[in-house]
Amino acid sequence: MDVFGLPEQTGRIGTDIRNGNYTWPVVAAFERANDSQRKILMNNYGRKDFLNVHAVQIIFQNLNIVKLYWDYEYESRRKINEEIEKSVEYPQPLFQLIMAAIISSSS
To answer: Is the domain of 56 the same as that of 81?
Structure first.
């Protein structure tokens, strides 16, 4: 997801908005947007022009989508790690290694 990641981290240059990819940020924005913000998202998401992309980014900023995303990711990781720690059936080191790989590939 390259909506708010740096190109050095994501390997892509902000194409999710232009390509109209269905990502967590746009779904969260639609869920939280008022009618006028939804209309702006509908009219601009998936369009390649800089002004269209910028309009979507402004909505994301107004709705605090970046903070919401990082809060969601942090809480998800916390819950997963909690489940790993409780597990007696499965090898904890293996799941911890998998989580570390997922985290390093997404950051």
So the answer is: no
Structure tokens at 7: 């190109």
Domain that holds residue 12: 7-63
pTM tops 0.70: yes
Q: Which of 96, 71, 67 is nearest to 81 (CA)?
A: 96
DSSP 63: T
Write the pLDDT tens digit of every residue in 88-98.
Answer: 777 888 888 88
Of 101, 96, 64, 68, the closest CA to residue 82 belongs to 96
Q: Tell me how crowded residue 75 is: count the other CB atoms within 10 A of its CB.
A: 10
Report how many domains make up the chain. 2
